[in-house]
Design goal:
Length: 528
């Protein structure tokens, strides 16, 4: 889907609100206690990323203020999941508007990027609402007693990324991917070509949201990513370290919960996006390919140790911007991008030599990928020798939004779809279930039977209930039929969610409250 069609709100691009320090207290007679786990997630020259997980061992609280001191002059430069003030070495982090409630044994977390000079020791002490975080519970207003045994922290949902070759057949991969969901309008969002997680009106991605998505039954999260103005100048084209670290942190929110994760290069190939550069009919293709190679080398290297649940996707809906038949040499350049991607990722080593890689054809369009329009599956000459010669490690990406007058046109004219439609005037004259079946069969017959699994990386339909109160029934029918048809033909799927609820929105969840907003559509996707 064209990126700008996904933009339904624009907000100031800031992940951190710096406010005055105001202590937040719990109930006056509440038992108090806490535990903090501070982890430096990555470190580079002069900078670092950190994750801070706080466990409340006392009575429930409705707001939190975590304080600590740096011991070597470190400074917080960017923080998410809260707001920060820093005075000298003293740091205070308060909850965001949506994550202040913290029950007994409940956990919350925030992350940040920081700067340091020389050494980077971890803070030695933390407080939660003024109470020292020792791992024990201290009843307020009562004499101090010997602490009880420290409760063990809930483990991370999975182990750290595995080493060794990725295993599993194409059929097993599709089965493992299950039903997927897109974290749209987040890491591909930008203002004037500068990526920012909150640029298009969504809040910072949280663990609570990913927990809710997983609880709803989704097993895969596709994370669209734009790089744009976060890429430095030639010849190194260095990706901004803080941005790359934030991408990894969001990936980890899903990967650590046992989900499959797919990340791609999203808005960099849209002519309509300021700062786009991966343009197939632009001049200077050698420079474009060099830049593309350098960026993917950095991204792939960052994730080379992750296990088989991580999949890298070369790009998103790349074409010349004209919704007609593919043109040459533009299609040849798209094929070349895919080949550069595969070769580059494989050469970074580690699990990248054997992981599954995802590549699209022209605009991820089924007709232009399966037909005789010029799509070429990349060669995979640098893959691990441990992979049996009969097995593939390449997947083919396609998107499905037909008929667009039902799924995406922002009007109230076409609001119904499928055999259950009750008003012929509100139903499109094409693109019904027989067409859907035929399109997915094309992907099956061209790729699946030849060992290349198919991933329908985006599908869905916008909310038109303001024009037709029955619209959600047909949105659910559409999703149910797409997922069932894809399964019939051995393909996996991921619903497009842009985070927008209400008129013309695709959202299934409220990202601020981490709650479900379209249970009926989710039930349809899950086959309920």
């Amino acid at each position: 889907m064209l990126s700008l069609r996904k933009v339904l709100a624009v907000a100031a691009a800031s992940a951190v609100a710096v406010v005055g320090s105001i202590a937040v207290t719990g109930q006056a007679s509440a038992a108090a206690g806490c535990r903090v786990d501070y982890t430096v997630t990555n470190q580079w020259q002069g900078g670092f990323g950190a994750d801070v997980r706080v466990t409340n061992l006392g009575d429930p609280i409705t707001g939190w203020d975590v304080r600590f001191s740096f011991g070597a002059g470190q400074r917080v430069s960017q923080l998410w999941n809260g707001s920060v003030t820093q005075s000298g070495a003293e740091v205070s982090v308060r909850n965001a508007g949506w994550n202040g409630a913290l029950g007994t044994n409940g956990t919350t977390s925030f992350g940040f990027n920081g700067a340091f000079t020389g050494t980077n020791p971890a803070p030695s002490a933390f407080t939660l609402n003024g109470v020292a975080c020792t791992g024990a519970v201290t009843p307020s207003g009562s004499p101090t007693t010997s602490p009880s045994a420290t409760p063990s922290q809930s483990p991370r949902p999975t182990t750290t990324p595995t080493s060794g070759p990725v295993t599993g057949s194409a059929a097993q991969l599709v089965a493992d991917l299950g039903k997927g969901w897109n974290l749209g309008n987040q890491l591909e969002a930008n203002i004037n070509g500068m990526p920012s997680e909150t640029a298009w009106g969504n809040p910072v991605v949280t663990s609570a949201l990913i927990d809710r998505v997983k609880a709803a039954g989704f097993r895969t999260i596709r994370i669209p990513v734009s790089y744009l103005g976060k890429i430095g100048s030639a010849p190194s084209y260095t990706v901004d370290a803080a941005w790359l670290s934030r991408i990894q942190e969001v990936v980890d929110l899903a990967y650590d919960r046992g989900l499959h994760v797919i990340i791609n290069m999203h808005g960099d190939g849209y002519k309509s996006v300021a700062g786009s550069w991966l343009i197939c009919d632009a001049s200077g293709q050698d420079t474009i390919k060099d830049k593309y190679q350098k960026v993917w080398q950095q991204v792939a290297s960052r994730f080379s140790g992750y296990g088989g649940r991580l999949i890298l996707e070369s790009m998103n809906e790349n074409f010349d911007g004209q919704y007609g038949a593919p043109t040459q040499p533009c299609y040849s350049n798209i094929n070349a991008y895919n080949q550069v991607f595969v070769d580059t990722v494989r050469r970074t080593g580690g699990n990248n030599t054997s992981r599954w890689l995802l590549v699209p054809g022209w605009n991820t369009n089924i007709d232009y990928t399966t037909g005789s329009y010029g799509f070429v599956v990349p060669t995979d000459q640098y893959r691990s020798s441990a992979i049996p010669s009969s097995e593939r490690r390449l997947m083919i990406s396609a998107h499905f939004y037909d008929p667009w007058d039902f799924t995406g046109t922002e009007s109230g004219a076409i609001t119904q779809w499928g055999p259950n439609a009750t008003d012929a005037a509100r139903k499109s004259t094409w693109g019904q279930q027989d067409f859907m079946d035929a399109q997915l069969k094309k992907m099956h017959d061209t790729f699946t039977v030849n060992g290349y699994p198919v991933f329908i990386g985006e599908y869905g339909s916008i909310d038109k209930t303001s024009s037709d109160p029955s619209n959600n029934r047909y949105r659910a029918d559409y999703a149910r039929t797409l997922v069932a048809t894809a399964k019939k033909y051995g393909a996996a799927t991921a619903y497009w969610d842009n985070g927008h609820n209400g008129q013309y929105g695709f959202a299934l969840f409220d990202r601020s409250s981490a709650t479900v907003t379209q249970q009926g559509i989710i039930d349809a996707i899950m086959g309920s």
